[in-house]
Description:
By secondary structure, this protein is of the alpha+beta class. Helices cover 31% and strands 21% of the residues.
Amino acid sequence: xxxxxxxxxxxxxxxxxxxxxxxxxxxxxxxxxxxxxxxxxxxxxxxxxxxxxxxxxxxxxxxxxxxxxxxxxxxxxxxxxxxxxxxxxxxxxxxxxxxxxxxxxxxxxxxxxxxxxxxxxxxxxxxxxxxxxxxxxxxxxxxxxxxxxxxxxxxxxxxxxxxxxxxxxxxxxxxxxxxxxxxxxxxxxxxxxxxxxxxxxxxxxxxxxxx
Length: 211
């Protein structure tokens, strides 16, 4: 199947480096990040998982749980985690799914035959508390993900869900935000007490609302 934005993320049971789990039970009411890796013991993935581990406090602040996936087995995952902890100077605490039969990879369309018939591509999904897919990013195997961008998008999604706004190009947490076209300027001035700047009738900014 092919998962698209707005779809409900499929539930599954999985063996992981931290034991057996149910995906929905693991996420609970949290936001979630599910990201796949071509293989254990690969250099780019090692740096990615190490950096993700170092962001634990950032994800915790955003009420977000992380879970990784690779088509290798649990024992390989556990041994690889020791390598990650050593080389990246961290302590990986999030689970890594062992998907040797590739059922979860196929469920989430993580295998792209034109890239590799057997290994997962470098995909990442952000899943909201309603289990809806809110972001899908797929990188080539040779390019590590930018987790600063993942945090930026997560901040944007959580802000958008709390307020009637959108975030402009290169937005960073704290920057001005955009009043969406569905809200009139008159209504916007009532909704956003910090003020509204109208550049064009369809392009209006307001200071970021308090979160």
